[in-house]
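Exercise: predict the fold of this chain.
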Amino acid sequence: MLRFAGHNFEPLPSGALYWRAEATLLVADLHLEKMSSFARAGQLLPPYDTGLTLARLEADLRRTGAQRLISLGDSFHRDEVSTTLTETDRARLDMLTDMADWFWLSGNHDPCPHALGGRCLPMVECAGLTFLHEPRRGASGLVAGHLHPAAHIFMAGRSTRRPCFVHDNRLMILPAYGSSTGSINILSPPFIGLLHWPALEVTMLGKDRTYPVSPKRLVRG
């Protein structure tokens, strides 16, 4: 269980966050159609990322029974790729948006509305919390994505680096959910000044579960 700003959340090993009290599933940075965008630019990579991400999302929706889903921006790697989905992926996404009350929040990769199921909004407010794409300095009760946080720890002679949830009870940043997304160490410059270190809580993604990590064990790299 993850306690943030007076609310309880369940961090899932997929990188999703379940808010049981509001029957809401939160995900960030799906970056759907990332590989197809690369292919159009001349980098011919296997375009399977969208299908893998949607399969993971379907499993999380069914597992939690969430009635609402909030996607915290950069759901698509580029605005126009919402029109390049394969028939199979589009059918699956249509099915998923019918399963829950769906909110697509605008991100820096996909700032414009699209015609898919659900509602396109710049931000959502619920139960005293604010949900949007990019973290803000000095925020309170803000849940965001954008930075793809990862924790790097060194224990018992072994080094491990994995995506993570990170918060200081004022700002929470979710890991990237997409199957082809990278990550950024939370000790690196993009995070400097965003989080209050004495109150920092880190939850690392594992294969089958999540793990709380002491900030004292974090290393750079």
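Check your answer against the key: DSSP finds three helices and 16 strands in the chain.
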